[in-house]
Amino acid sequence: MPNRCTGKKNMKKIALFFTALLLGFAASAQETYRFAERDTCSLYLDIYRPASGAQTEFQGKKKPTVMFVFGGGFVTGQRSDKFVMPWFDLLTADGYNVVAIDYRLGMKGYKVGKGLAGAYKACERFLLAQEVGVEDVFSALSFLAENPELGIDVNNIVLSGSSAGAIISMASEYAVVNGETHGMPEGFNFKGIMSFAGAVISTNGAPKYKNAPCPTLMLHGTADKAVAYKSVAALGRGIWGSSYIAGKLAKNGWEHCIYRFKDRTHDVAAYMYWLWPIEKEFLEQNVILGSGRTVDALVDDPSLPTWGNISLDDIY
């Protein structure tokens, strides 16, 4: 447990990470709906529609809806975080629907113990938090499917997430390719995944994909200390990050795009707005046109912003 002084520094670091993004941006118009009622809370989603006059097709094909899952270490965050609004505005200006969803925060109030024993036990709780988030993603999809008047085609969804939300997004697709569709029709899959500093948590060894996943975009800092860039595991329990997942997909010849940000930390989890050109190309080429394009790029870009090296100790 960090001492009192260190704790204050950590809180300040996290506050700077988020509040630096709030300045000067306005939110888009939205519609809000309750999609699930849980024992502990109600879950809501917001829909942001394409801007007036925006092109909702690309080369004659309908653009997908981008569903976003917020980050915050499974302990904090909200679907309406102001720092993502500029990115939502980019998406809607380019003709995309955006759906931002709630999910239950599975690590909230949990105290992570020290040493290997603490980490070993905490992994079970992290897995539960991931699974709860996946369940809530599919509840949101079911709600949209049951309410077609809302105009969101659940068969044309790109699931995206930041940090914990990226983990949930990656795990949702992992569930689908391994036959767990959580109530969705047989054959359902996402049109794409966009993961900002994501991973897959497992207590049963390294992830094994039974089938090819949908087009997957992974963006991750090579020096990330909050969500493993490669993997951190012991005795079959751990977290397998973007670099590991990309290697697994490449070995099988499966389509994917990974951008490795040299020496960058968990800042990449908040780069949605700044990396729009990369996302736009992925959405148009991989998702809409189905080009099968694969990218493995090491990016060294000093112009990208930084807010300090956030670690697991800062969050928990």
Give short descriptive properties of this protein:
Rossmann fold; 9-stranded mixed β-sheet; alpha/beta; 316 residues; 3-stranded antiparallel β-sheet
Beta-strand content: 15-25%
Q: How are strands sequenced across the largest beta sheet?
A: 1-2-6-5-7-8-10-13-14
Helix content: 25-40%
Taking all residues together, what is the mean pLDDT? 89
Shape: globular
Residue stretches low in confidence (pLDDT < 50, at least 5 long) are 1-9, 11-27
Domain count: the total is 1
Distance between the termini: 9 Å
Query: With helices defined by DSSP (H or I, 4 residues minimum), what is the helix count?
Result: 7
The number of strands is 14
Q: What integer value in Å does the Rg equal?
A: 18 Å
Secondary-structure-based class equals alpha/beta
Series of secondary-structure elements, N-terminal to C-terminal: HEEEEEHEHEHEEEEEHEHEH
CATH homologous superfamily label:
Alpha/Beta hydrolase fold, catalytic domain
Report the sheet with the most strands, covering strand number, pairing sense and barrel closure.
9 strands, mixed
**CATH architecture verdict:** 3-Layer(aba) Sandwich
Give the class-level CATH name.
Alpha Beta
